[in-house]
Write a structure and sequence with these properties.
Number of helices: 7
Oligomer: single chain
Largest sheet: 4 strands, mixed
Structural class: alpha+beta
Order of helices and strands: EHHHHHHEEEH
Length: 141
């Protein structure tokens, strides 16, 4: 990926790993009428039915981490409303870890979502408010 000739923007687990939905927000996503919402609900319910992770039976209206939703937001013009970005030179180590390159490195610069907007991460709350309704009602079949 880092050798691709086009500009790159990524959201590491530091930023996307904190996103999950619960209760009414999660129900709105599961009950949405859009194609994406329907596909999400079908996939999530299947995953829960075959998962050996007992966490889901204890948290029936909690999505667990929704990593891809942040990546989807990166494809919109609204990403800067929620996330802070830095241009960082990144390398992938031989054991597969993505790390910030050392000084003098010729590694490529990547636009990285390094955190959420606001002094107290208000971007997380704003994203969690925006995302369910955006996904639930859009991309109809």
């Amino acid at each position: 990926m880092f050798r691709a000739p086009w500009p790159l923007t990524i959201t590491p687990l530091d930023s996307c790993g904190v996103i999950s939905l619960a209760n009414d927000s999660f129900r709105a996503l599961l009950d949405g009428t859009g194609a994406f919402s329907s596909s999400f609900a079908e996939s999530w319910l299947y995953y829960v039915s075959v998962s050996t992770n007992k966490w889901y039976s204890l948290q029936p209206l909690n999505s667990g981490p929704l990593l891809d939703t942040v990546a989807v937001a990166l494809s919109t013009s609204l990403a800067g409303r929620f996330l802070r970005f830095e241009s960082l030179k990144l390398n992938v180590t031989d054991d597969g870890r993505t790390v910030i390159a050392g000084a003098g490195s010729t590694a490529r610069s990547v636009n990285v979502a390094t955190g959420w907007t606001g002094d107290n991460n208000e971007g997380v709350a704003e994203f969690l408010s925006w995302m369910p309704s955006e996904i639930a009602g859009k991309w109809s079949r």
